[in-house]
Amino acid sequence: MNNIPNPEDLFKQVTQALPTGLFELHKDLEKNLRVGLDSGLRKINVVTREEFDIQTAVLERTRARLEKLEQQVAALESK
Hints:
Layout: H1 7-16, H2 23-43, H3 49-78
Helix pairs in contact: 1-2
């Protein structure tokens, strides 16, 4: 997943490649690129790093709780 380019970097690379006299085209192209890229990323279910980290933390807490409950069940079964 680390090889997915940052959208801001992609916008800068494409728009900086345009001749400087095409300012209006530059703005229109940047707007269209943002809309298109955002739409494409949503279709392939890409999440932000922040969302990924949040879900990872939730999963870690859930696993810890599950392990604790498994230990409690094993203790009750052994009685």
